[in-house]
């Protein structure tokens, strides 16, 4: 019953997307009013959101007559993970993607007002085409609704690694929201290119629609790192795994765009470059879907086993080639006014260069193993040393620029601007001195000094900006965006320092102990008591080591575990983590010997890891501050105020 | 809206033809690069055959756990030389496979040797313990040996016969089903 309803809703979604596509084209040709395309957007959104809700109800109701439910559902799975399994496997994730895209499309259709509407029909054409593509995949090759008869009484449940931590329930939807959201600036840019007018209004609107996806991507990436740290038990948070890398790529190009857009708004240069960044970001989101969803990572040769992978490859090729041709034919010429060396524009240009270099490095390292395998080799590994060695120095440069950039004026470098660098310089010098005494490794000293410089400089500027908020004659929205940007910078600097601290200052010890014996690391002592076996009845068996962390007279009971999932052969070390502001204590059970009753326990101290999550939170707050629509914009009668925005594009971007 | 420099509504004809030339030139250039890439692969200049039949480059490296080991010391014995690292995921599956290979063919003089690529000694020792790797591991801290062999990406495995000639090169993870026939190439 639900299956038939879901299939019907999906079918209506596909038809509405195709009708919307045709309607948008008719609007462009001046035959139809825009309202018809907007109506199609409403129908597709209601149908596809409805299809998603039907799938959720099928999952929650354990309707095992539906193929997707038999694939990821199980009676033992708790409610939260049952809902989250909507996007836990291929077919469901594409259904979810299509639903999100239909909502984003509708938002663009109804929220675009006034003169901005000029580009709406062409943008809707692009989005309806992408939506039709995704909805079609749900309808035919990736149909999750097909009927299973006779229906089984129970299913295997979602991938147990993903049903292990609440973070997994919010991390993927945030990434998807980021990916899907980036199709809006892409569509707006194609529209502006087709119309041949890459003006300041296009830039302001594209930037506004980029900020929310950027915040979602940032939050999704940080939560993914957190999940990796808290669940996988290897002690790290970022492994340069292809799945992580392809999610990082659009974030890098989008971050570059948010900066280059400011240069364009101020100085009129880099319009074509902005187009390239927006188009690349969208292409990279499709690449991410292709890489994570086609099975290409298991083996290049499993790629053609499903038709979905090749379909995404065709979409990728079509978007990439189409965009290149469109840009080549339509990119603006002239109009560059240049910028003085030593102005903020120079810092932003360097920033863009570094972001794009990092993105190219990550892209190469991620795709290289696929090329080797396709060319007849076996599976090779491009590991952390490659990424760290190439990206380390580039990231260091970014960190320094992050501190310097906002202090620079848009015009010539002035003595006043130079004086602004004093607090950061003092912080960098004292941190460097301290680190030379404590650690001495040149890369640690350099990174620590750069991080301290960036953080102090940003906080200093932030303080100045906050005091100017209430001053008369300042545009509140401009100050808010500027504060948002600086806040995000502060979060980034905090993350950089946390990464450095956790990498450079980590200590660990691995010991095999009998019951009653203790493991000691520095001032921390852990006593091993006994082994406990535990089964949750949902295909998850674990062996827990009951240990006590002794801190003076206080004792904390902890239970690092080895978890065996029935679905996979490898045991996963589930860590016990004692978070702290200075360092996390990270306890993993790495082995146990039933014959002798001994366990092997790894006790590690990771300095500042908690600050990664704090830094991520700061970035999200900053991004939201910058992304919030201004009060003027919420005003329904916005014709006049929009004209103001066109006249003063720089306002849209903060000072 | 008198003179908007960003407007490209009606570019001059000369401008458009120049763009088309640029576009076609770009597509031809990318096509040429891809063509060369495809030809190189098709002719086997990249891939297993590149080093086969050549003498194995000499090395003398520090051994994990103490001492040194050089290729000269192994002359007269068939050698399976495996480049690996603790950060390499496929290497985790190879380690038990190669340990078993070393045990199975020990009576025929086969020597399995691991060379640690771009990694620290501590990480390597931890990996050897965790994945029960029993054969000797050598530290290639400068990366010189990997360069001499032309390692493309790890894992990578060279099958060297008793006279010191490379008889097979496996780029990427070993295929268990092919291992017997590859070892047969170097056994006396």
Q: Could you walk me through the main structural features you see in this protein, from its secondary elements to its overall organization?
A:
The complex is a heterodimer of chains A (655) and B (188). Chain A is an alpha+beta fold. Chain A has helices at residues 2-28, 34-60, 67-72, 79-84, 90-111, 120-139, 167-181, 183-195, 200-231, 242-267, 271-293, 308-330, 344-374, 384-404, 415-419, 422-438, 442-467, 476-504, 610-627, 631-634, 639-647, and strands at residues 507-513, 518-521, 524-535, 540-551, 554-558, 561-565, 571-574, 576-578, 583-593, 598-607. In chain A, the strands form two sheets. In chain A, strands 2, 3, 4, 5, 6 and 7 form a six-stranded antiparallel β-sheet that branches. A four-stranded antiparallel β-sheet of chain A has the order 1-10-9-8, covered by helices on one side. The radius of gyration of chain A is 26 Å and the shape is globular. With 188 residues, chain B is α/β, with parallel strands linked by helices. Chain B has helices at 13-42, 89-104, 121-130, 144-149, 176-184; strands at residues 60-63, 68-70, 79-84, 111-117, 137-140, 156-160, 166-171. In chain B, strands 2-1-5-4-3-6-7 form a seven-stranded mixed β-sheet. In chain B, α2 links the parallel β3 (79-84) and β4 (111-117). Chain B is elongated. The termini of chain B are far apart.
Give me the Rg of chain A, rounded: 26 Å
Uncertain regions spanning at least 5 consecutive residues of chain A: 633-651
Shape of chain B: elongated
Structural class of chain B: alpha/beta
Q: How helix-rich are the residues of chain A, as a percent range? A: 55-70%
> Whole-number radius of gyration of chain B?
24 Å
Largest sheet of chain A, if any? Answer: 6 strands, antiparallel
Distance between the termini of chain B: 84 Å
Order of helices and strands of chain B: HEEEHEHEHEEH
Helix percent band of chain B: 25-40%
Beta-sheet strand percentage of chain B? 15-25%
First CA to last CA of chain A: what distance? 57 Å
